[in-house]
Amino acid sequence: MEALIKFVQDEFVTKKEFPEFGAGDTITVFYEIREGEKTRTQFFRGVVIQVKGTGITKTFTIRKMSGTVGVERIFPLNMPALQKIEINKRGSVRRARIYYFRGLTGKKARIKEKRM
Length: 116
What we know:
The protein is mainly beta. 9% of the residues lie in helices and 42% in strands. It has one helix and five strands, in the order H-E-E-E-E-E. A hairpin with a 2-residue loop joins strand 3 and strand 4 (69-76). The longest helix is centred in the N-terminal third of the chain and has 11 residues, at 2-12. It is globular, with a radius of gyration of 16 Å. The termini are far apart. The model has no long low-confidence stretch (mean pLDDT 90).
């Protein structure tokens, strides 16, 4: 049964090519917003907290600070409104899910940049 589901997903779901990213990376996500008959592109820039799932169900969570309030947004990777993803910085973290990042403020909330 799983093989059949995987076959259908591979055949009928259109996949967009996005760069590989992981927890700790700072990325900018450009997505389309519809307001009545008009459409516009909006972006959301922040740190990736987690990447979850595989294949068609893959999602990622981004966190940014808007003033003093933390804002998190979950994006499905196969969302039709998703236009492009840009990687701004590669972060060096030891965990795949950095939930502890929510409790950090100030200088402690900085993530080291990965050396290439």
